[in-house]
Amino acid sequence: MPEQNIHGPRDFGDRLTYLVRRIDGALAQRLDQRLRDYGLTPAQLSALAQLDIEHPGTLTGAQLADRSGVTAQSMSAAIARLLERGLVHRTQSTVHGRRLDVSLTPAGAELLRTVQHDTLDAEAAVDFGLDDAELDRLKQTLRRVARALGVFLPAEQGDPAAPPQR
């Protein structure tokens, strides 16, 4: 058992939530630097990526917020900026009169491809201290944990942890 003080265990390094948060913070800083070059925030990038997954379909702001792990208010601001830049289009739902559906524009799809290429290169340049097999196992494990926690992930073909496609 870790050494204790009046506040509890001293060794936070063994706590999964602490480790994940620290790693997320380090990776998010790198991503934020790249996104600034394109005038995007992480929420905006996530919205573009989620809309690309659904393309040619649409998603509501609430669905985008849920899939992106941000509040509805944050996603609303992200969508507003994407609309101003012509990267997404919003239309009145034909099914639900009060619902607004968001879709990806060709300009949004083009920017997403560019950003994905750039961020993929940046990720490949990071030395995670793992060999390829370890990195693949880590990704598979993280996907399983995400799904167990109800985090939306697009199904990966060939991923044994992936639920059946609908």
UniProtKB/TrEMBL annotation:
Q: Has UniProt tagged this entry with the keyword Coiled coil?
A: no
**Any idea where the HTH marR-type domain is?**
13-147
What GO biological process, any one, is recorded here? response to stress
Q: What is the lineage of its organism?
A: Bacteria, Bacillati, Actinomycetota, Actinomycetes, Micrococcales
In which domain of life is the source organism classified? Bacteria
Protein name in the entry:
DNA-binding MarR family transcriptional regulator
A single MF term (Gene Ontology)? DNA-binding transcription factor activity
Which organism is this protein's natural source? Leifsonia shinshuensis
KW Cytoplasm (keyword) present: no
Keywords carried by this UniProt record: DNA-binding
Write down the InterPro entries for this protein, in alphabetical order: HTH_MarR-typ (IPR000835), MarR/SlyA-like (IPR039422), WH-like_DNA-bd_sf (IPR036388), WH_DNA-bd_sf (IPR036390)
Q: Which Gene3D superfamilies match?
A: Winged helix-like DNA-binding domain superfamily/Winged helix DNA-binding domain (1.10.10.10)
